[in-house]
Amino acid sequence: MKEMYLEDSYLWAFDATVEEVFDEKVILDKTAFYPQSGGQPADAGILIHGDAQFQVVGVQPSEGGIIHILDRPALKPGDRVSGRIDSERRYRFMRSHTACHILSAVIFQETGAKITGNQIELSRSRVDFSLESFDKARMSQYVEKANDIVGERHPVMTKILPRAEALALPDLVRLAMDVPDREMIRIVEIEGVDRQACGGTHVKNTGEIGKIKMIKAENKGKANRRVYFSLED
After folding, report:
1. Could you count the other beta carbons within 10 Å of the beta carbon of residue 136?
2. Of the residues 78, 88, 92, 127, which has the maximum number of CB atoms within 10 A of its CB?
3. Going by CATH, does the domain composed of 2-85 fall within 3.90.1150.10?
């Protein structure tokens, strides 16, 4: 299956062929729908076949391909469909995901803390990191530094590298999570700021993010800190 979102995060519409059907679940030969993974929620949208329209209520990764969960069964293998992604929802996630990378980079540069996780949502997002000491005032300063980077309008690029070449990049040590066990690794680079192994969707320029606003910072236990933020247009 071709994962079209890996090449173009701004692809809102596409045509595909149904390959497998399990009741209301279908696998296509290619898709622009992002499956829930890496802290980023799944896309929402519709599949159109002839005069019939199906709501895509869930998208999940699987060994056999990306599973699209529809609001009802009806499609069969060989059907041609047109996909339409909820672009407003996707774009919000793109902006938030790139903001997570920037904030993570600033925290790493300032404290050496490795990023242990993140969760992106429509109303707010969070970044988790490993850090012994916790200072909310400093965290506000880190958010402001992240906003400075946003305003500098850095280009955001993606590339696919052989695993050995990707793991040789020193920047990747900032992640506490394991790099995916794949022969080819997708790298998201914010020019002059950050490089991470990531399969998520991102904006093309940091200027698209808007303003990062810290909601709260929490101590989640020993060496486990969490920052919640939202975006302002």
Report:
1. 13
2. 127
3. no
The amino acid occupying position 74 is A
Pick the CATH number of 90-232 from 3.30.420.40, 3.40.605.10, 3.30.980.10, 3.40.91.80: 3.30.980.10
- The strands making up 211-219's β-sheet, listed across from edge to edge, are 115-120, 125-129, 225-232, 211-219
Is 164 within 8 Å of 172 (Cβ atoms)? no
Q: Give the mean pLDDT per block of 10 residues along the chain (233 residues).
A: 94 98 97 95 98 98 95 97 98 97 93 89 94 83 97 96 86 62 88 93 98 91 87 91
- The set of residues, in sequence order, having a beta carbon less than 8 Å from that of 143 and lying 6+ positions away, is 103, 212, 213, 214, 227, 229
Cβ burial of 220 (10 Å; 0-12, 13-18, 19+) is: exposed
pTM for this entry:
0.93
**How distant is the alpha carbon of residue 30 from its chain centre?**
19
